[in-house]
Amino acid sequence: MEMVNEAETKSEAWELAKELVRIDSSDPGAYEKEIGEFVYGWLRGRILESGLEADERDEIGLGAEAAADRKNGKILLCRREALPGRFNVMARIPGEKPGPALTFICHMDTVMLGDGWDEARPALGAVTENGRLYGRGACDMKSGLACALTAFSGILKKVGQGARPARPLVFIGTVDEEDFMRGVEAAIRWGWATKQDWYLDTEPTDGQIQVAHKGRLWFELTMEGITAHASNPWKGADAIAAMAEAVSLIRRRIKDCPAHHDLGISTVTFGQIEGGYRPYVVPDRCRVWIDMRLVPPTDTAAAKRIMDEAVRTAQDEVPGVKGSYVVTGDRPYVEKDDQSPLLAALRRAALEVTGREAEVGSFNGYTDTAVIAGTLGNHNCMSYGPGSLELAHKPNESVPFEDVRRCGKVLGRLAEDVVFGN
Protein backbone atom coordinates (compact mmCIF):
# COMPACT_ATOMS: atom_id res chain seq x y z
CA MET A 1 0.00 0.00 0.00
CA GLU A 2 1.24 3.50 -0.78
CA MET A 3 1.31 6.09 1.96
CA VAL A 4 1.91 9.63 0.69
CA ASN A 5 2.28 12.64 2.93
CA GLU A 6 2.53 16.33 2.14
CA ALA A 7 6.33 16.33 2.36
CA GLU A 8 6.57 13.53 -0.23
CA THR A 9 4.55 15.46 -2.78
CA LYS A 10 7.07 18.30 -2.54
CA SER A 11 10.15 16.14 -3.11
CA GLU A 12 11.10 16.07 -6.78
CA ALA A 13 13.94 13.63 -6.13
CA TRP A 14 11.57 11.19 -4.39
CA GLU A 15 9.15 11.16 -7.31
CA LEU A 16 11.96 10.82 -9.82
CA ALA A 17 13.46 7.94 -7.84
CA LYS A 18 10.17 6.06 -8.18
CA GLU A 19 10.24 6.51 -11.95
CA LEU A 20 13.81 5.27 -12.15
CA VAL A 21 13.15 2.19 -10.00
CA ARG A 22 10.33 1.15 -12.36
CA ILE A 23 12.87 0.93 -15.22
CA ASP A 24 14.68 -2.40 -15.44
CA SER A 25 18.40 -1.66 -15.79
CA SER A 26 19.68 -4.90 -14.28
CA ASP A 27 23.25 -5.96 -15.05
CA PRO A 28 23.25 -8.68 -16.25
CA GLY A 29 19.70 -8.43 -17.55
CA ALA A 30 18.03 -5.58 -19.36
CA TYR A 31 21.14 -3.37 -19.04
CA GLU A 32 21.00 0.43 -19.41
CA LYS A 33 19.48 1.23 -22.80
CA GLU A 34 16.02 2.20 -21.50
CA ILE A 35 17.22 4.06 -18.44
CA GLY A 36 19.95 5.81 -20.45
CA GLU A 37 17.36 7.06 -22.91
CA PHE A 38 15.13 8.17 -20.02
CA VAL A 39 17.95 10.10 -18.32
CA TYR A 40 19.03 11.70 -21.59
CA GLY A 41 15.48 12.74 -22.41
CA TRP A 42 14.87 14.00 -18.87
CA LEU A 43 17.97 16.20 -19.02
CA ARG A 44 17.07 17.50 -22.45
CA GLY A 45 13.60 18.40 -21.23
CA ARG A 46 14.95 20.26 -18.20
CA ILE A 47 17.41 22.21 -20.31
CA LEU A 48 14.64 23.37 -22.63
CA GLU A 49 12.22 24.10 -19.77
CA SER A 50 14.86 26.40 -18.29
CA GLY A 51 14.90 28.44 -21.52
CA LEU A 52 18.39 27.24 -22.42
CA GLU A 53 19.77 25.60 -25.55
CA ALA A 54 21.02 22.03 -25.64
CA ASP A 55 24.13 21.37 -27.71
CA GLU A 56 23.51 17.69 -28.43
CA ARG A 57 26.50 15.68 -29.57
CA ASP A 58 27.84 12.16 -29.83
CA GLU A 59 31.42 10.89 -29.59
CA ILE A 60 32.72 13.87 -27.65
CA GLY A 61 35.58 14.44 -25.25
CA LEU A 62 35.92 17.37 -22.89
CA GLY A 63 39.04 19.12 -24.13
CA ALA A 64 38.70 21.88 -26.69
CA GLU A 65 34.94 21.22 -26.80
CA ALA A 66 34.57 22.33 -23.19
CA ALA A 67 36.36 25.61 -23.91
CA ALA A 68 34.04 26.21 -26.86
CA ASP A 69 31.01 25.68 -24.60
CA ARG A 70 32.05 28.62 -22.42
CA LYS A 71 31.83 30.81 -25.49
CA ASN A 72 28.50 29.68 -26.93
CA GLY A 73 26.75 29.41 -23.56
CA LYS A 74 24.89 26.26 -24.54
CA ILE A 75 24.41 23.25 -22.28
CA LEU A 76 26.40 20.34 -23.63
CA LEU A 77 24.39 17.11 -23.76
CA CYS A 78 26.02 13.92 -24.94
CA ARG A 79 25.49 10.18 -25.02
CA ARG A 80 28.40 8.02 -26.06
CA GLU A 81 28.61 4.26 -26.40
CA ALA A 82 30.91 2.67 -23.82
CA LEU A 83 29.92 -0.90 -24.67
CA PRO A 84 27.85 -2.25 -27.57
CA GLY A 85 24.34 -0.86 -27.13
CA ARG A 86 25.23 0.69 -23.75
CA PHE A 87 25.97 4.39 -23.54
CA ASN A 88 27.11 6.84 -20.89
CA VAL A 89 25.22 10.13 -20.59
CA MET A 90 26.84 13.49 -19.90
CA ALA A 91 25.50 17.02 -19.45
CA ARG A 92 27.63 20.08 -18.75
CA ILE A 93 26.76 23.60 -17.63
CA PRO A 94 29.72 25.79 -18.65
CA GLY A 95 31.41 28.13 -16.19
CA GLU A 96 32.74 31.58 -16.95
CA LYS A 97 36.00 31.22 -15.01
CA PRO A 98 38.76 28.62 -15.08
CA GLY A 99 38.79 26.13 -12.28
CA PRO A 100 37.77 22.56 -11.51
CA ALA A 101 34.27 21.44 -12.47
CA LEU A 102 31.99 19.82 -9.91
CA THR A 103 30.81 16.50 -11.35
CA PHE A 104 28.01 14.28 -10.11
CA ILE A 105 28.77 10.79 -11.43
CA CYS A 106 26.12 8.09 -10.98
CA HIS A 107 25.82 4.58 -12.35
CA MET A 108 22.56 3.73 -14.09
CA ASP A 109 22.69 -0.07 -13.78
CA THR A 110 21.64 -2.28 -10.90
CA VAL A 111 22.45 -5.85 -9.96
CA MET A 112 20.09 -8.60 -11.17
CA LEU A 113 16.47 -8.30 -10.07
CA GLY A 114 16.86 -11.55 -8.14
CA ASP A 115 14.39 -13.68 -6.18
CA GLY A 116 12.93 -13.41 -2.70
CA TRP A 117 10.94 -10.20 -3.07
CA ASP A 118 7.71 -9.89 -1.07
CA GLU A 119 4.66 -10.26 -3.28
CA ALA A 120 3.51 -6.76 -2.30
CA ARG A 121 6.95 -5.29 -3.04
CA PRO A 122 8.03 -6.47 -6.51
CA ALA A 123 11.51 -5.59 -7.73
CA LEU A 124 10.24 -3.04 -10.26
CA GLY A 125 7.15 -1.96 -8.32
CA ALA A 126 8.57 1.20 -6.73
CA VAL A 127 6.19 0.64 -3.81
CA THR A 128 6.27 3.24 -1.03
CA GLU A 129 5.28 2.12 2.43
CA ASN A 130 5.85 3.71 5.82
CA GLY A 131 8.13 6.35 4.36
CA ARG A 132 10.33 3.93 2.41
CA LEU A 133 10.72 3.25 -1.31
CA TYR A 134 11.12 -0.42 -2.21
CA GLY A 135 12.59 -1.84 -5.41
CA ARG A 136 15.77 -2.95 -7.12
CA GLY A 137 18.15 -0.02 -7.10
CA ALA A 138 16.12 1.95 -4.56
CA CYS A 139 19.28 2.69 -2.57
CA ASP A 140 21.95 1.43 -5.00
CA MET A 141 21.65 3.88 -6.55
CA LYS A 142 18.56 5.19 -8.26
CA SER A 143 17.54 7.43 -5.37
CA GLY A 144 21.05 8.90 -5.43
CA LEU A 145 20.82 9.26 -9.21
CA ALA A 146 17.55 11.14 -8.71
CA CYS A 147 19.16 13.46 -6.16
CA ALA A 148 22.03 14.26 -8.54
CA LEU A 149 19.70 14.89 -11.46
CA THR A 150 17.42 17.21 -9.51
CA ALA A 151 20.41 19.13 -8.09
CA PHE A 152 21.69 19.57 -11.65
CA SER A 153 18.22 20.69 -12.74
CA GLY A 154 18.14 23.26 -9.94
CA ILE A 155 21.26 24.91 -11.31
CA LEU A 156 19.78 24.85 -14.83
CA LYS A 157 16.77 26.80 -13.55
CA LYS A 158 18.96 29.46 -11.94
CA VAL A 159 21.08 29.82 -15.08
CA GLY A 160 17.91 30.11 -17.14
CA GLN A 161 16.79 32.90 -14.82
CA GLY A 162 20.00 34.83 -15.46
CA ALA A 163 22.44 33.56 -12.83
CA ARG A 164 26.01 33.41 -14.12
CA PRO A 165 27.88 30.24 -13.19
CA ALA A 166 31.50 30.80 -12.27
CA ARG A 167 32.41 27.11 -12.29
CA PRO A 168 31.14 24.28 -14.52
CA LEU A 169 28.68 21.70 -13.25
CA VAL A 170 28.69 18.26 -14.90
CA PHE A 171 26.45 15.22 -14.64
CA ILE A 172 27.71 11.81 -15.83
CA GLY A 173 25.57 8.67 -15.90
CA THR A 174 27.65 5.53 -16.34
CA VAL A 175 27.04 1.93 -17.40
CA ASP A 176 28.53 -1.33 -16.11
CA GLU A 177 29.39 -0.18 -12.58
CA GLU A 178 27.90 -3.34 -11.09
CA ASP A 179 30.15 -5.52 -13.26
CA PHE A 180 33.61 -4.45 -14.47
CA MET A 181 33.16 -0.65 -14.26
CA ARG A 182 33.86 -0.20 -17.95
CA GLY A 183 31.58 2.83 -18.10
CA VAL A 184 33.77 4.98 -15.86
CA GLU A 185 36.89 3.59 -17.51
CA ALA A 186 35.52 4.84 -20.84
CA ALA A 187 34.75 8.24 -19.27
CA ILE A 188 38.39 8.48 -18.22
CA ARG A 189 39.62 7.54 -21.72
CA TRP A 190 37.36 10.16 -23.31
CA GLY A 191 38.52 12.94 -21.02
CA TRP A 192 35.17 13.20 -19.25
CA ALA A 193 37.09 12.56 -16.01
CA THR A 194 40.35 14.37 -15.25
CA LYS A 195 42.80 14.72 -12.40
CA GLN A 196 41.80 18.36 -11.81
CA ASP A 197 37.99 18.20 -11.52
CA TRP A 198 35.88 17.23 -8.49
CA TYR A 199 33.80 14.03 -8.50
CA LEU A 200 30.98 12.98 -6.22
CA ASP A 201 29.02 9.75 -6.59
CA THR A 202 25.77 9.16 -4.74
CA GLU A 203 26.22 5.61 -3.49
CA PRO A 204 24.36 4.84 -0.23
CA THR A 205 26.54 6.05 2.64
CA ASP A 206 24.31 6.09 5.77
CA GLY A 207 24.68 9.85 6.05
CA GLN A 208 28.48 9.74 5.96
CA ILE A 209 30.86 11.35 3.51
CA GLN A 210 32.98 8.43 2.40
CA VAL A 211 36.35 9.28 0.90
CA ALA A 212 38.57 6.20 1.14
CA HIS A 213 38.43 2.72 -0.38
CA LYS A 214 40.16 -0.56 0.12
CA GLY A 215 41.99 -1.83 -2.93
CA ARG A 216 40.27 -4.58 -4.89
CA LEU A 217 42.52 -7.26 -6.37
CA TRP A 218 41.22 -10.34 -8.21
CA PHE A 219 43.15 -13.53 -8.93
CA GLU A 220 42.35 -16.71 -10.82
CA LEU A 221 44.47 -19.48 -9.28
CA THR A 222 44.84 -22.85 -11.05
CA MET A 223 46.33 -26.15 -9.92
CA GLU A 224 47.15 -28.78 -12.56
CA GLY A 225 47.51 -32.31 -11.19
CA ILE A 226 47.67 -35.88 -12.50
CA THR A 227 44.61 -38.10 -12.71
CA ALA A 228 44.55 -41.58 -11.17
CA HIS A 229 42.07 -44.00 -9.63
CA ALA A 230 41.14 -43.06 -6.07
CA SER A 231 42.19 -46.53 -4.88
CA ASN A 232 45.77 -45.70 -5.96
CA PRO A 233 46.11 -41.97 -5.18
CA TRP A 234 49.92 -42.16 -5.02
CA LYS A 235 49.90 -42.66 -8.78
CA GLY A 236 48.35 -39.25 -9.33
CA ALA A 237 48.69 -35.69 -8.05
CA ASP A 238 45.61 -34.27 -6.29
CA ALA A 239 44.94 -30.76 -7.62
CA ILE A 240 42.19 -30.09 -5.07
CA ALA A 241 44.43 -31.08 -2.16
CA ALA A 242 47.08 -28.73 -3.51
CA MET A 243 44.50 -25.95 -3.78
CA ALA A 244 43.53 -26.53 -0.15
CA GLU A 245 47.15 -25.94 0.88
CA ALA A 246 47.29 -22.73 -1.17
CA VAL A 247 43.99 -21.41 0.15
CA SER A 248 45.00 -22.04 3.75
CA LEU A 249 48.28 -20.21 3.34
CA ILE A 250 46.66 -17.23 1.58
CA ARG A 251 44.10 -16.89 4.39
CA ARG A 252 46.82 -16.90 7.05
CA ARG A 253 49.02 -14.38 5.24
CA ILE A 254 46.19 -11.93 4.58
CA LYS A 255 45.06 -12.23 8.20
CA ASP A 256 48.59 -11.25 9.29
CA CYS A 257 48.70 -8.10 7.12
CA PRO A 258 48.86 -4.80 9.03
CA ALA A 259 45.63 -2.90 9.67
CA HIS A 260 45.09 0.70 8.51
CA HIS A 261 43.83 3.49 10.78
CA ASP A 262 41.03 4.50 8.36
CA LEU A 263 40.39 1.44 6.19
CA GLY A 264 40.68 -1.35 8.76
CA ILE A 265 42.02 -4.78 7.79
CA SER A 266 42.81 -6.52 4.53
CA THR A 267 40.49 -9.42 3.68
CA VAL A 268 40.29 -12.29 1.23
CA THR A 269 37.31 -14.20 -0.16
CA PHE A 270 37.45 -17.39 -2.24
CA GLY A 271 34.26 -16.69 -4.12
CA GLN A 272 34.13 -19.55 -6.61
CA ILE A 273 35.85 -22.90 -7.05
CA GLU A 274 35.72 -25.78 -9.51
CA GLY A 275 37.66 -29.00 -9.79
CA GLY A 276 37.53 -32.75 -10.36
CA TYR A 277 34.86 -34.67 -12.24
CA ARG A 278 34.17 -37.90 -10.28
CA PRO A 279 34.47 -38.71 -6.55
CA TYR A 280 36.52 -41.84 -7.26
CA VAL A 281 39.13 -40.13 -9.47
CA VAL A 282 42.15 -38.14 -8.30
CA PRO A 283 41.40 -34.63 -9.63
CA ASP A 284 43.84 -33.35 -12.21
CA ARG A 285 42.62 -29.75 -12.16
CA CYS A 286 41.25 -27.21 -9.70
CA ARG A 287 40.59 -23.50 -10.12
CA VAL A 288 39.56 -20.85 -7.59
CA TRP A 289 38.61 -17.20 -8.02
CA ILE A 290 39.97 -14.93 -5.29
CA ASP A 291 38.87 -11.47 -4.18
CA MET A 292 41.31 -9.52 -2.00
CA ARG A 293 40.41 -6.19 -0.38
CA LEU A 294 43.69 -4.58 0.55
CA VAL A 295 44.64 -1.69 2.84
CA PRO A 296 47.97 0.16 3.06
CA PRO A 297 50.73 -0.86 3.18
CA THR A 298 49.68 -4.18 1.59
CA ASP A 299 49.64 -3.54 -2.15
CA THR A 300 49.50 -5.54 -5.37
CA ALA A 301 53.19 -6.47 -5.20
CA ALA A 302 52.76 -7.78 -1.65
CA ALA A 303 49.70 -9.79 -2.67
CA LYS A 304 51.58 -11.35 -5.58
CA ARG A 305 54.33 -12.42 -3.20
CA ILE A 306 51.70 -14.17 -1.09
CA MET A 307 50.34 -15.91 -4.20
CA ASP A 308 53.84 -17.00 -5.24
CA GLU A 309 54.41 -18.47 -1.78
CA ALA A 310 51.06 -20.25 -1.93
CA VAL A 311 51.91 -21.87 -5.27
CA ARG A 312 55.34 -23.01 -4.00
CA THR A 313 53.83 -24.45 -0.82
CA ALA A 314 51.13 -26.33 -2.73
CA GLN A 315 53.67 -27.82 -5.11
CA ASP A 316 55.90 -28.90 -2.21
CA GLU A 317 53.03 -30.48 -0.28
CA VAL A 318 51.53 -32.29 -3.28
CA PRO A 319 54.36 -33.46 -5.57
CA GLY A 320 53.50 -33.50 -9.25
CA VAL A 321 51.10 -30.54 -9.10
CA LYS A 322 51.86 -27.33 -11.00
CA GLY A 323 50.28 -24.06 -9.90
CA SER A 324 49.81 -20.75 -11.69
CA TYR A 325 47.71 -17.60 -11.38
CA VAL A 326 46.59 -14.58 -13.35
CA VAL A 327 45.44 -11.16 -12.13
CA THR A 328 41.94 -10.50 -13.50
CA GLY A 329 41.29 -7.15 -11.79
CA ASP A 330 43.44 -4.61 -9.99
CA ARG A 331 42.04 -1.49 -8.30
CA PRO A 332 44.41 0.38 -5.96
CA TYR A 333 43.38 1.51 -2.50
CA VAL A 334 42.42 5.16 -2.06
CA GLU A 335 43.36 7.01 1.13
CA LYS A 336 41.62 10.04 2.61
CA ASP A 337 43.02 13.49 1.88
CA ASP A 338 42.01 15.82 4.71
CA GLN A 339 43.06 18.81 2.58
CA SER A 340 40.59 18.05 -0.25
CA PRO A 341 38.65 21.22 -1.16
CA LEU A 342 35.69 19.11 -2.30
CA LEU A 343 35.60 17.43 1.11
CA ALA A 344 35.58 20.85 2.79
CA ALA A 345 32.80 22.13 0.51
CA LEU A 346 30.68 19.01 1.01
CA ARG A 347 31.09 19.14 4.77
CA ARG A 348 29.95 22.78 4.78
CA ALA A 349 26.93 21.99 2.63
CA ALA A 350 25.91 19.07 4.84
CA LEU A 351 26.30 21.19 7.98
CA GLU A 352 24.22 24.03 6.50
CA VAL A 353 21.40 21.66 5.51
CA THR A 354 21.33 19.26 8.47
CA GLY A 355 22.70 21.43 11.28
CA ARG A 356 25.32 18.86 12.24
CA GLU A 357 28.72 17.74 11.08
CA ALA A 358 28.72 14.80 8.68
CA GLU A 359 30.92 11.91 9.73
CA VAL A 360 33.78 11.22 7.33
CA GLY A 361 34.48 7.55 6.71
CA SER A 362 35.48 4.94 4.15
CA PHE A 363 33.48 2.97 1.57
CA ASN A 364 33.67 -0.81 1.90
CA GLY A 365 33.11 -1.41 -1.80
CA TYR A 366 34.65 0.16 -4.90
CA THR A 367 32.85 2.95 -6.74
CA ASP A 368 33.12 4.96 -9.95
CA THR A 369 34.84 7.78 -8.06
CA ALA A 370 37.32 5.30 -6.61
CA VAL A 371 38.25 4.28 -10.15
CA ILE A 372 38.86 7.93 -11.03
CA ALA A 373 40.87 8.49 -7.85
CA GLY A 374 42.95 5.35 -8.26
CA THR A 375 43.55 5.75 -11.99
CA LEU A 376 44.27 9.49 -12.10
CA GLY A 377 45.56 10.21 -8.60
CA ASN A 378 42.65 12.61 -8.02
CA HIS A 379 42.15 13.44 -4.32
CA ASN A 380 38.77 15.13 -4.87
CA CYS A 381 36.68 11.97 -5.32
CA MET A 382 34.10 10.79 -2.78
CA SER A 383 30.68 9.31 -2.07
CA TYR A 384 27.58 10.80 -0.43
CA GLY A 385 24.13 9.43 -1.05
CA PRO A 386 20.85 8.26 0.47
CA GLY A 387 20.28 4.86 2.01
CA SER A 388 22.40 2.13 3.51
CA LEU A 389 24.82 -0.13 1.66
CA GLU A 390 23.68 -2.98 3.93
CA LEU A 391 20.36 -3.07 2.04
CA ALA A 392 21.89 -2.96 -1.44
CA HIS A 393 21.73 -6.05 -3.70
CA LYS A 394 19.16 -7.72 -1.41
CA PRO A 395 15.48 -8.62 -1.84
CA ASN A 396 13.21 -5.82 -0.59
CA GLU A 397 15.97 -3.25 -1.10
CA SER A 398 14.68 0.10 0.13
CA VAL A 399 15.54 3.70 0.97
CA PRO A 400 13.90 6.09 3.47
CA PHE A 401 12.21 9.25 2.25
CA GLU A 402 14.06 11.40 4.78
CA ASP A 403 17.42 10.22 3.40
CA VAL A 404 16.41 11.15 -0.14
CA ARG A 405 15.18 14.57 0.94
CA ARG A 406 18.34 15.25 2.96
CA CYS A 407 20.68 14.14 0.20
CA GLY A 408 18.82 16.11 -2.45
CA LYS A 409 19.09 19.28 -0.38
CA VAL A 410 22.78 18.76 0.41
CA LEU A 411 23.65 18.16 -3.24
CA GLY A 412 21.64 21.21 -4.26
CA ARG A 413 23.42 23.38 -1.70
CA LEU A 414 26.83 22.01 -2.70
CA ALA A 415 26.14 22.71 -6.38
CA GLU A 416 25.03 26.30 -5.68
CA ASP A 417 28.03 27.00 -3.44
CA VAL A 418 30.54 25.63 -5.93
CA VAL A 419 29.00 26.77 -9.21
CA PHE A 420 28.19 30.31 -8.13
CA GLY A 421 31.25 30.78 -5.97
CA ASN A 422 29.59 31.15 -2.57
In short:
The protein has 422 residues and is of the alpha/beta class.
Structure, described:
The chain is α/β, with parallel strands linked by helices and about 425 residues long. Helices cover about 35% and strands about 25% of the residues. Helix 5 (about 140-160) runs parallel beside helix 11 (about 400-420) and helix 9 (about 340-355) packs across helix 11. Mean pLDDT is about 95; it is low at about 1-10.
Please render the helix and strand layout as text.
Layout lengths: L5 H4 L2 H10 L11 H17 L4 E4 L6 H9 L2 E9 L2 E8 L8 E6 L19 E3 L2 E3 L3 H23 L8 E6 L7 H9 L7 E4 L7 E5 L1 E10 L3 E2 L9 H17 L11 E9 L5 E2 L2 E10 L5 H18 L4 E10 L9 H14 L5 E4 L4 H9 L4 E3 L14 E3 H19 L3
Parallel strand pairs: 1-2, 4-7, 4-8, 8-17, 9-16
Antiparallel strand pairs: 2-3, 3-7, 5-6, 6-18, 10-14, 10-15, 11-13, 12-14
Helix pairs in contact: 2-5, 3-5, 5-11, 7-8, 9-11
Q: Which key terms come to mind for this protein?
A:
422 residues, alpha/beta, 7-stranded mixed beta sheet, 4-stranded antiparallel beta sheet, 18 strands, 35% helix, disordered N terminus
Proportion of residues in β-strands: 15-25%
State the helix count: 11
Average predicted local confidence, pLDDT: 94
Q: Measured on Cα atoms, how large is the radius of gyration?
A: 24 Å
Provide the spatial order of strands within the biggest beta sheet.
1-2-3-7-4-8-17
